[in-house]
Design brief:
The structure holds two protein chains of two kinds. Chain A is an alpha+beta fold. Helices cover 67% and strands 8% of the residues of chain A. Chain A has helices spanning 2-10, 12-30, 39-42, 48-60, 78-92, 129-141, 169-181, 194-228, 231-254, 266-290, 295-323, 330-360, 374-389, 391-408, 427-439, 456-471, 481-492, 506-519, 521-525, 546-564, 575-609, 612-636, 647-673, 676-704, 711-754, and strands spanning 65-71, 97-101, 107-112, 115-120, 156-163, 188-192, 443-450, 475-479, 534-541, 570-574. In chain A, helix 16 runs antiparallel to helix 20 (546-564), helix 20 crosses helix 21 (575-609) and helix 24 (676-704) runs antiparallel to helix 25. The radius of gyration of chain A is 32 Å and the shape is elongated. In chain A, 52% of the residues are buried. A 13-stranded antiparallel sheet of chain B has the order 6-5-4-3-2-1-13-12-11-10-9-8-7. Chain B starts with a helix and ends with a helix. By secondary structure, chain B is α+β, with helices and mostly antiparallel strands. The chains are: A alpha+beta, B alpha+beta. Chain A binds chain B through residues 112-117, 454, 492, 503, 505-512, 514-515, 517-521, 529-531, and chain B through 56, 58, 60, 62-64, 82, 85-88, 91, 105-106, 108-111, 113-118, 121, 124-128.
């Protein structure tokens, strides 16, 4: 530390120039950071489920749709149909839109003079009510479109825009949205679908970044001003944490990472966590000046005396964040990397850059920073009393809390459903729920059947499977070759409804397919590969909780096994499958990162304090904090999601600092005073104050995340803030109570022995 | 970027000027209509009987192989029949033109009935290939002059052969192109390359005829490739057995004959 202090003073100019230069470079890269909110982006690229999804997407396309629902008193009339037709053709012109399907261009396989024809169902927009009435009658007669593209009451209809699988689907969605907007009124329009949700989430993320950053900076300015009451005391810490934010985001950008749903909170988090370190340094600097030392000595002492605890606190925080790297979710790994790096930079800035700047500045005029505050003194007096006289109640309360928390632990459920990322009153959520209710789901689930489709046995199994799927609740509108071949057969047999059956011999199937191929090649390509070896069955699924969704997917899987057995390889994919994978990885990642966070913290504290017992004492309050966090989640019905899954590790990383500070100070005092009770009191009064400021800053920072547009992030912010308060209390009340109890226990044992 | 954008119009204008000057000399000799007339004459035959291998390659490079026979008589009767693969064997398509109206019937042996296909399918895909029905008409013999109004726009080499370059506009609504560019070999008036533009004037398909052989005093390409550049798929036709001016009785071009096999 001595050497560090000398180095800082000797090379202060170089350090300042170097840091500012790197910051400018990092800032340049930070500004280019991309934002990604897709479900696929959460998962590793080599994940099996992702690979399967990509393969099917590549083979059949058509897994990403923007679903536009139009609601009106009457859909089948001249004005509305004209409007839909215009919208359909406008959407088709958008770059990145592959195909658009609506009631005005939906295919119909119909009989024509004994043969078949694939035509638009509505060949001509009806000119009057009579013609419209005829269309309605035909829609009712052939139920293939009802509930799929138009409702039975003709009050709602669907326009589906298929989006090409490109790097930037959000831009395509934005173009679709602005086109659709032009058609609003008098009809109501709702727009949803997986790519739309992702694009909306991206917009919200951008807004969040813009909204949260000024708030957290304002909160920090306020806290810093109240602590130091000087311009310097505000500007220096703020610049230190902003530098760490810029470097962290810049690094992410340089190594080709993007900001995700969870890393939206990264700047807020770094600012609130990082400010603690610089507050400690600056506070000590003022304290030394107040004691009459000159700038040079003050800097020396700040680095020497506060440097090590700051490094320890920062180190454990880095470990907490880094432990999230054990998650299997890419977005959480990226978050781990960004925050751990950012905290490291905040740490280095606090002990190198800030002292270097202070070295260049004159002695400040105001030294209010170091003056004593009456309120906090009383606060610590109270705490000291509690520890002394109420420690038994404290331990009983703790035991009750442990029991209560453990009780609900098994009830904790993961829920990572994408729709949950939107507030209940957000247009995205309203649209999705609307489409779910009216059209039976906006998520597409895909079943790929491997085997030659000309094999009548396979086609029959597909038919039976599809018929069973029709009966599954919340899964709707299965579409496949079975559907097409049934319609074709009906068309070939004078449009008799009872002729909606599949061909039954190999040659028949082959020739039916040839006929379809000749009539409309594209129709076939959406459901069958060129070599006839893979067929797609596509269905819609409603959005639901992750647990229910898992059950639903399992139900479909068992139907697959029932109908296809081992004879055919059948795969299930789609957004719900990706969602399930995220859920599974959230749970497995939670366990891995939590265990590693607690373990590493225990090891580090044991090493630093040179005793396993002491390490255990420090880890205890934090383990309790983690348990209470999960208990709160259980009692409040909060589920594990991509954000809440991170709380435990973050709590360990940040929260353990308080315990470390209290415990080290207690040991230090014990060696000096030889009186355990007084040493404990001293520790509470001195370190407690620093802990309090630190906790206020961190709690304020996390509370600001409550302003986020994403419900999971709000929950994350709120819960982490509560967790921070608990770990603060744990370090200041529970840990001292435990120490006090062991002291008393030992004393009474000593007395007994003496007797 | 800026530089190229100003250079490109200059290049285009100068190329156009050069072409005009250059083609003025050519046009003194022949007009586009005359070239097409020659092509039609050269390819004309009373009847044809071809067997060909058809390979359809999709955008992912996967292939479908089929063997078909095409028989035509005059310019108003034609029948296409599948020989392979076995599961579609004898599936047949009959086309007849009467009083300017085209009729198509399809026979599916597995069902045993003949189905009429709407005539507007003419601009649709021929048997799931990259050829439209109109395109395939040009394979056997041609009706270029009837179907297109053409202009000679210059001379260009295609694979070392000097060709007339024509720009042609379809005369019929059933042809789904805005323009066709055609390269016709000067020596023998054989079309070597054709480019088709869609209604948005974007390049849609490229047809290439290769290895002309003289069969029954008719020059016939050995392979014909049609590439759909927009979709990335292509269809390769290999003409296996080629007969011209053979005796084909009228009755084989009837729906009744279709079902008799």
């Amino acid at each position: 530390m001595n050497r560090l202090a000398r180095f800082v003073k000797k090379y202060s100019t170089t350090i300042i120039i170097f840091v500012l230069f790197i910051t400018v470079v990092m800032g340049y890269f930070a500004l280019q950071i991309e934002i990604e909110a897709g479900i696929k982006d959460m998962l590793p690229k080599d994940n099996k489920v992702v690979k399967k999804y990509n393969e099917v997407q590549e083979t059949f396309g058509g897994m990403a749709f923007a679903a536009i629902m139009i609601e009106d008193d009457e859909i089948i009339d001249t004005a509305t149909l004209k409007k839909i037709k215009k919208m359909n053709s406008d959407l088709e012109k958008i770059d990145g839109v592959k195909e658009v399907k609506s009631i005005t261009n939906i295919d119909k396989i119909e009989s024509s003079a004994g043969g078949i024809e694939v035509n638009n169902f509505i060949k001509k927009i009806p000119a009057n009510n009579e013609e419209a009435q005829k269309i309605k009658e035909e829609l009712l007669r052939r139920d293939q479109y009802l509930g799929k593209i138009v409702t039975e009451d003709f009050k709602s209809t669907m326009v589906l825009a298929e989006i090409k699988d490109e790097e930037k689907p959000e831009e395509i969605v934005n173009r679709i949205q602005s086109t659709v907007k032009k058609y609003k009124g008098p009809e109501e329009l709702y727009i949803t679908g997986s790519p739309v949700m992702v694009a909306d989430a991206t917009d919200y993320m951008k807004n969040d970044l813009k909204k949260l950053l000024p708030f957290v900076i304002a909160a920090m300015v306020l806290i810093l001003y109240l602590s130091f009451r000087s311009l310097r005391g505000v500007l220096l810490p703020i610049s230190a944490v902003l530098i760490s934010v810029i470097w962290a985001v810049g690094l992410q950008s340089i190594i080709g990472k993007s900001l995700s749903l969870v890393s939206t909170v990264l700047p807020v988090l770094l600012i609130s966590v990082g400010s603690a370190y610089v507050i400690h340094i600056v506070a000590r600097y003022y304290e030394e000046l107040n004691n009459g030392y000159d700038v040079d000595v003050a800097i020396d002492n700040s680095i020497k005396k506060v440097g090590l605890p700051v490094i320890m606190a920062g180190g454990t925080t880095m470990i907490g964040f880094a432990s999230l790297f054990f998650s299997d979710l890419v977005i959480i790994q990226d978050f781990a990397l960004g925050t751990a790096f950012g905290v490291g930079i905040a740490l280095l800035t606090s002990i190198i850059f800030i002292p270097a700047v202070l070295h260049k500045l004159n002695t400040p005029k105001h030294l209010k920073a170091a003056e004593e505050r009456v309120f906090s003194t009383n606060f610590f007096k109270g705490i000291n009393k509690i520890v002394h006289y109420r420690r038994k109640s404290i331990i009983i309360i703790v035991l009750i809390i442990i029991a209560l928390a453990s009780w609900v632990l098994p009830k904790l459920e993961p829920n990572t459903n994408y729709i949950g990322y939107f507030k209940k009153d957000s247009p995205t959520r309203i649209a999705t729920e609307k489409v779910d209710n009216v059209f039976g789901g906006s998520q597409s689930l895909n079943v790929v059947v491997n085997g030659n489709i000309k094999n009548p046995d396979l086609l029959k199994r597909m038919r039976d499977f599809q018929d069973d799927i029709e009966k599954v609740e919340a899964v709707n509108n299965p579409m496949s070759l079975v559907t097409l071949l049934r319609q074709e057969n009906r068309a070939l047999n004078n449009d008799e409804p009872e002729e909606e059956v599949i061909p039954t011999t190999k040659n028949q199937i082959a020739q039916y397919l040839l006929l379809l191929e000749m009539s409309d090649k594209q129709l076939l390509e959406s459901y069958l590969t060129f070599d006839y070896q893979q067929s797609l069955i596509q269905m819609n699924m409603k959005t639901m909780s992750s647990v229910k969704q898992k059950e639903k997917v399992a139900e479909i899987r068992s139907l697959i096994d029932k109908h296809f057995g081992d004879q055919y390889k059948v795969e299930l994919t789609g957004i719900p499958k990706l969602g399930n994978e995220v859920t599974d990885l959230v749970v497995s990642g939670q366990i891995k990162s939590l265990i590693s966070a607690i373990l590493f913290t225990f090891i580090i504290t044991s090493l630093l304090l040179k005793s396993m017992k002491k390490g255990f004492f420090c880890a205890l309050p934090i383990a309790l904090t983690v348990l209470i966090n999960f208990g709160l989640m259980g009692w409040l019905g909060i589920s594990l999601d991509i954000a809440t899954v991170m709380i435990a590790s973050i709590a360990v990383g940040i929260g353990v600092d308080y315990s470390i500070h209290i415990y080290t100070r207690y040991i230090e005092e014990k060696e000096k005073q030889k009186n355990e009770v007084l040493s404990l009191k001293e520790a509470i009064f001195t370190v407690g104050r620093a802990n309090l400021y630190n906790a206020i800053a961190v709690v304020a920072g996390f509370s600001i995340i409550l302003l986020s547009s994403f419900p999971p992030l709000k929950t994350f912010g709120g819960l982490t803030a509560i967790t921070m308060v608990i770990s603060f209390i744990g370090a200041l009340i529970i840990l001292p109570s435990l120490i006090m109890s062991t002291i008393k226990l030992k004393n009474s044992r000593d007395k007994n022995n003496n007797k | 970027m800026k530089k190229t954008t100003t250079i490109i119009p200059i290049l285009v204008v100068s190329t156009l000027l050069l072409t005009v000057v250059f083609s003025a000399g050519v046009m003194a000799k022949m007009t586009g209509e005359e070239v097409l007339d020659k092509v039609d004459q050269k390819m004309d035959s009373d009847s044809r009987d071809f067997i060909l291998d058809m390979t359809i390659v999709n955008q992912n490079g996967q292939e479908r192989d089929r063997k078909i026979t095409i028989k035509t008589k005059g310019d108003n009767k034609g029948i296409v029949k599948f020989l392979e693969p076995g599961d579609v064997k004898d599936t047949a398509l009959l086309t007849r033109e009467k009083n300017g109206e085209e009729n198509m019937w399809l026979y599916l042996p597995s069902i045993g009935n003949v189905n009429k296909i709407a005539s507007h399918s003419k601009s649709g895909n021929f048997m799931g290939t990259d050829f439209s029905y109109n395109d395939i008409d040009m394979v056997g013999g041609s009706n270029y002059k009837k179907d297109y109004d053409s202009k000679l726009i210059g001379e260009e080499k295609v694979n070392g052969d000097l060709c007339y370059k024509l720009s042609a506009v379809p005369t019929k609504d059933s042809i789904n192109y805005s323009e066709m560019e055609m390269w016709v070999r000067k020596d023998d008036f054989m079309p070597l390359k054709l480019k088709f533009y869609d209604k948005d004037d974007k390049l849609h398909k490229i047809m290439i005829n290769k290895n002309y052989r003289n069969i029954d005093s008719h020059l016939t390409p050995e392979t014909i490739t049609m590439e759909n550049v927009q979709k990335g798929s292509k269809t390769i036709l290999k003409l296996k057995e080629v007969k011209y001016n053979v005796e084909l009785p009228d009755r084989i071009f009837t729906t009744r004959y279709l079902t008799r096999n």
